[in-house]
Amino acid sequence: MDRIRIVGGNPLNGTIPISGAKNAALPLMIASLLTDRTVTLENLPRLADVSLLVRILSHHGVDYSIDGRRQGEEQDAGQTVHMTAREIVDTVAPYELVSRMRASFWVVAPLLARCGEARVSLPGGCAIGTRPVDLLLMAMERLGASIEIDAGYVVAKAPKGLRGAEINFPKVTVGGTHVALMAAALAQGTTVLHNAAREPEVLDLTDLLVKMGAKIRGAGQSTIEIDGVARLGGAKHRVLPDRIEAGTYAMAAAMTGGDVFLQGARAEHLQAALDILIQTGTQIDASDEGLRIRRDGGAILPVDVATAPFPGFPTDLQAQFMALMTRANGVSRITETIFENRFMHVQELARFGARIKLDGDSAIVEGRRVLKGAPVMATDLRASVSLVIAALAAEGESMVQRVYHLDRGFEALERKLGRCGADIERLSSGG
Ligand code: UD1
Description:
- The chain is α/β, with parallel strands linked by helices.
- It has two domains: 3-18 and 241-427, Enolpyruvate transferase domain (UDP-n-acetylglucosamine1-carboxyvinyl-transferase, Chain, Alpha-beta prism); 22-238, UDP-n-acetylglucosamine1-carboxyvinyl-transferase, Chain, CATH 3.65.10.10.
- It contains 14 helices and 24 strands.
- Helix 1 (22-30) packs parallel to helix 7 and helix 8 packs parallel to helix 12 (381-393).
- Uridine-diphosphate-N-acetylglucosamine binds at residues 23, 26, 103, 131-136, 171, 173-176, 201, 315-316, 338-339.
């Protein structure tokens, strides 16, 4: 298994190109199942989750081709993938595939909407507490599907097609909103989603669906209306930049000090996190080209944070922010309101010498000035990158194990950080 070796202490200086967003790429790719025409996605990140989803979708009958590198194109430029589901050959999504990536459960919506049936394994994925799918199933049921659970599989049926309905989400759910949008796009009549997720990735999916011919009003708001259409067509769409990747590197630069330009990052997707970073003493300049993040070596100020659905502070940046707070000159409280048990990074951060106490859904971080390099291991995607951030600022050498978590969500991490002066290298198995 690969490991990443980091010798901490170098400030980050330079430009980091921000890749296409993983959490947008996945639903956009799944939406290709809704039509027999070609959906072309540009700026897809080169990530293990994207490659795996391509394989999963091809199992259902999606043909795909990937454009090669073009003249003058940077090594890190996103990929262009053409996806065509001329015919759905299999409406079963097996356990072996869905258990490897939670989001692939979302295929239930296009399969059901287009074929009138789907048999999809209950998901696996990141080990961050219990992550139920009850609200996704509620949405399908409201649209007229019958749902049964059989031997670990969700069996969804709507032989006469889906029908528009009012769907009230008791809790904001990104996956639930994606699934409801895709299913309602091909339902008969009008669907109204209440308390829909407003994450930029939801808006990106809506944009693609509209290009495919869907009739959607209120995109990006918490009430969305969808008039179903009989068929959707092909479209071309560019995946939006990854706000979580951008926020992660912003925290890394705040942690090490230095001056980093996050090329392509958009402030409006990250405002809550940027506001918090400013309070920690980090300087931020936003422009149409990206975000410049600077800290000149002055103290990192402690700030309390609570995660919340967009436009609040993202749960996917909670672990990274905690790493930053371990070096603040005071005590901060970090409260996780979205996922239970999303504090698995705490015990690993402690290995660097961080002082963190858990108090229900909060972590109390007693900042201290010096972290010491250590061997560490992570259990999920965002937790593992928080360890990388801590290691960049720790004295001496750290070894981050289980790098496959990082490869699921961070494209060319060691190259991007290495170019900005970090002492970081990947050691391949046995290396
Ligand atoms: C997506 C993101 C993930 C992010 C999360 C919250 C992708 C691929 N993943 O995950 O990175 O951390 O949004 O921003 O886009 N819930 C239920 N029942 C359900 C569905 C969800 O109770 O049927 C709960 C969850 O347990 C959680 C909350 O709702 O407490 C939000 O989850 P949700 O927004 O659905 O997360 P995902 O879409 O899985």
